[in-house]
Every structure is written in structure tokens, then in C-alpha cells.
Design a protein that fits this description.
Layout (H helix, E strand, L loop, with lengths): L2 H19 L7 H4 L17 H24 L7
Helix pairs in contact: 1-3
């Protein structure tokens, strides 16, 4: 597999893992017992920690991609 294929696999895996990581540790204004401010939805997260979740997503994706690379490099699974 060429470099473009590996980049595509990494990008797709990154987005899939991000959507799996996003709900962890989220607390809404309603769950926190806050009254909320004007213009703020009660279901909106109090502190989403997006940067931390992106770093966690990248770390997990690197592990997943490394496993994929090893399978492809050492031909552990035949695709054709």
C-alpha cells in the first residue's frame, strides 16, 4: 500500500475514533444543575475538553494505524 492509502486509513480512523471519544466525560448544564444563561442550551456541555479529546483520539489512532501497518507490511492477512 502506498503513502496515500495509509494517509486515508489514518484520516478515516481518526474521525471514527473522535466520534467515539467525544461523549466521554461530558456533562450538560442540566446535569450540572446550572440555571443556564440567555442563549445557552441546557443540553450544551459545560466543559467539552475538545483539545484533550483530540490528543487522545490522535494517540489511539496512531496505535490503530500501527496495527494496520503491521498487518499490511508483514502480510498477516491476505486481501487477494
Amino acid at each position: 500500500m502506498n503513502i496515500a492509502g495509509h494517509i486515508v486509513v489514518f484520516a478515516v480512523a481518526w474521525w471514527l475514533i473522535l466520534f467515539m471519544v467525544l461523549p466521554f466525560g461530558v456533562q450538560s448544564h442540566h446535569e450540572a444543575g446550572e440555571d443556564g444563561e440567555d442563549g445557552v442550551e441546557m443540553a450544551a456541555p459545560v466543559k467539552p475538553n475538545i483539545g484533550k479529546k483530540m490528543l487522545i483520539t490522535t494517540a489511539i489512532t496512531i496505535v490503530v494505524w500501527a496495527c494496520f501497518w503491521a498487518v499490511m507490511e508483514f502480510e498477516l492477512i491476505s486481501l487477494g
